[in-house]
Amino acid sequence: MQNKFVSPLISLKRTNDVFSKHILSRKEHKAFLIDLLNAVIFDKGHHPEDEKILDVSLEDRVLSPLHPEDKIGILDIRAHTRKRIYTIEIQQYFEKDIGARSYYYASKVLGSEITRGVPYHKLTPVIIINFLTHNHLSTKNYHSCYHFNEDDEHSRLTDIVTFHFVEFPKMKKKVTSVMSRLEKWVTYLGAKAPAGEVIIPEDTMFKELAEVEKVFSKDKEEMLRYEAAERYEMDYASHMSSAELKGRKDQALETAKTLLEMNLPIEKIVKATGLTAAEILKLKN
Question: Largest CB tally within 10 Å, which of 129, 133, 221, 249?
Answer without folding.
Answer: 129
